[in-house]
Amino acid sequence: MTDAPASDSDVDAPRTGSLKPVLDVIPDEAYDNPTWKGMAYFARDMAIYLAVVVALVLFDNPFAVLALWLAAALVVSALFVVAHDAAHGALFSSKRLNRVIGTIAMLPSWHVFEGWVLGHNRIHHAYTVRQGYDFVWHPYTAEEYAAMGRLRRFRHRIEWSWYGAGFYYLREVWWNKMIVGKPPARWAATVRRDRILVWTFVGLASAALAGIGWIRYGTVVGAAWMILKVLVVPMVAFSFVIGSFVHVHHVQPGIRWWKRREWTKFKGQMEGTTVLRARWGLNFFFHWIMVHVPHHVDMRIPMYNLELATDAIKAAYPETVHDEPLRFRDFMANTRACRLYDFDAGRWLTYREAREQLASGTGGNASA
To answer: Is pTM, for the whole model, over 0.85?
Structure first.
């Protein structure tokens, strides 16, 4: 790939909606994905995960268990990012190896590999921040919220808060899409097979942990506690981590969602996500997944080369790329400001702004 002049890219891409000028500035080395490197990340994360599992089996001190649950949430997230790269075909050159490693790495998070490929690759990435298509954190309008019943409005307030992202992820992404969603006919067999793999893993792991719990505690409650402590809580904790990640990737006041006919690939992939710089060594677990713009521009870029691709893209499009530090307080602020959406005005609304808009009769959200 060759560098394209920034002036040509900045003029052409927004007008045509094409990502080609952006792809042209990404250096060839950003696509290098030697097998040994992907295997090293997978082996390292799997070794840490197994060590955490053993520690959770052995220790019952409340402070130790809490610390281990945090470690489990982080390392399950790390394995998931490895699997996420494999699902995109970015981790290895071999399609078969991507599938095998991706399937294994998704088991601790109870995720269905082919189900993830269908929903994430073919829908979320294909139609990022497009109204009626991208299902991940798709916003409701003021009118839609007002038409909800009391319980649904309460659920919305919880799920769109900083502390409720995991609830949203568990319900909307994991349960509705991974576990019970009906895939298109051409995907049904592979998704069903991978669902069987996941539930086989959960069942066998639960049986083994129940046995260990019975031996250790001598009670049914002890057996159930072992399953909860080692298998269930880490998966739920992971869901809160990954739910928060996905939220900050695509929801903030500066990120616009687009009506169907106004949306372009450039708007979705360049303007519809962010580059957030993780500090304090967090990329040991995050694997640069917060550097999200180049990942949406081209899914084939492996996780460890995303910063290299970002530098090239940002040099060509300095006014387009959202690039800022990853801060928890920004996530909290985003959840307060971004509750509902006005697709006509192209802006996020708080609940109060939505009420005022409906009371004044301004705004509208007809599909385009």
So the answer is: yes
For position 10, what pLDDT does the model report?
45
Q: What is the CA radius of gyration of the chain?
A: 22
Half-sphere exposure (Cβ direction) of 111: Cα atoms closer than 13 Å: 33
β pairing state of 275-277 and 323-325 = parallel
Sign of torsion, CA 360 361 362 363? positive
Kindly report, residue by residue over 227-275, the tens digit of the pLDDT. Answer: 999 999 999 999 999 999 999 999 999 999 999 999 999 999 999 999 9
| Domain residue ranges in the chain | 6-360
* Total length of the chain: 368
Q: Which of 244, 81, 94 is nearest to 159 (CA)?
A: 244
Evaluate if residue 8 carries a pLDDT over 50. Answer: no
**202/107 Cα distance (integer angstroms):** 8
Name the residue among 129, 160, 69, 151 with its Cα closest to residue 270. Answer: 129
Please give the torsion angle defined by the CA atoms of residues 219, 53, 176 and 169, in that order, rounded to the nearest 10 degrees.
120
Q: Which amino acid is residue 109, in one-letter code?
A: S
> How does DSSP classify residue 33?
-
Tokens of 79: 């394995």
Q: Which residue has the tokens 């799997």?
A: 46
- Distance from CA of residue 52 to its chain's centroid? 23
Instruction: Report strand pairing: 340-342 vs 347-349.
Output: antiparallel
Band (pLDDT 50/70/90 cuts) for residue 155 is very high
Contact 335, 285 (CB under 8 A): no
Q: Which of 296, 163, 339 is nearest to 241 (CA)?
A: 163
Gap between the Cα atoms of 58 and 253, Å rounded? 46
pLDDT of residue 360: 87
Which segment of 4-8, 46-50, 294-298, 332-336 scores lowest on mean pLDDT? Answer: 4-8
CA distance 77 to 79: 5
Which amino acid appears at position 228 of this protein?
A: L
Instruction: Give the rounded distance of the alpha carbon of 324 from its chain centre.
Output: 18
